[in-house]
Amino acid sequence: MTEENSSLVFAASPEEKGLRLDAFLAGKVESWSRSRLQRLIDDGDVLVNQKQAKPSYKLHAGDEIDVDLVEVAAVRFEAEDLPIEVIYEDEHLAVVNKAAGMIVHPGAGVSSGTLANALAFHFGLAGAELAGDPGEDRDSRIQNLKTKIGIVHRLDKDTSGLMVVAKTEKVHEALSDQFRDREVFKQYVALVHGSTRDNSGRIDKPLARDRWHRTKMTVAANGRNALTVWKVRQRFGKFTLLEVEIKTGRTHQIRVHLASINHPVVGDETYNEGRDNTVADSDVNRAIESMKRVFLHAEKLSFTHPVTAELIEFMQPMPDELSSFLANIK
Predict the structure, then answer these.
(1) Given this model, what pLDDT does residue 76 score?
(2) What is the value of pTM for the model shown?
(3) What pLDDT shows up at residue 3?
(4) Which residues are catalytic?
(5) How confident is the model over 35-44, as pLDDT tens digits?
(6) Which long-range contacts (CB under 8 A, 24 or more apart) does 31-35 make?
């Protein structure tokens, strides 16, 4: 077995031939519940010989099992009085404008300073409530924590914009169903390198974890389906401002998809392969460095209110650092 960050690689021995994949992993990853491991398999975060498999897959001797332990969430954390911008709130849910640089919820090595910590304080959750039932298994406690603090979906750390959070378990479940059924409208604005040939387009490419860099995603034939739709809002010479709608919610989807068509997002050090450093204008180059974030913002969000059944829509303009950058490159 080898380990790199949160990824594990196993090789099935002759004695393990015939074991179900989920049972095999339950014996190898003792700190994770079997139900959580089954969800990892279903989500495509476990590959057998570089292909997705079902939890019931029967192992063969020599099979290589590649496991990505996605978001090892903290089981307990504290409510913190952190500044958050609440756009809308009623007794059932809230819509917030997440700032770039803020992580959505605690995970491996991060237990404070997240949106979840701030929401726990805003919703008046006490330490005892956040601690959960010690008798529950780890997986159940993690899920209950996320439900209590309303986390339904997320944005990358350096992406800003609109997020909806639930205040009750019933609303959390209803909103989760809407996301799962692709009934939630999410539109982003992204500034990319280069001038797109067309004024609009679709990127329909499956995504999977990068085999060699486990914190990254990549286009892969055996990945999970992902669909991104984009259109040009404005052109700036060597940059293009896009409106981007995602039909699926894969990790880093917009950033990977746009990079795959040779138009990576400005400021994205993970996926633009140093494209920021190729900008000839030194003033623009310095402006990119000073942003200290990716030029990606969740601008519009609409969904059906789980209680009133009304379609509600929100629009949040770009933050100052992004609008100022556009003013500079004009």
Answers:
(1) 61
(2) 0.80
(3) 32
(4) 156
(5) 778 878 876 7
(6) 31/138, 32/69, 32/138, 32/139, 33/137, 33/138, 33/139, 33/140, 35/139
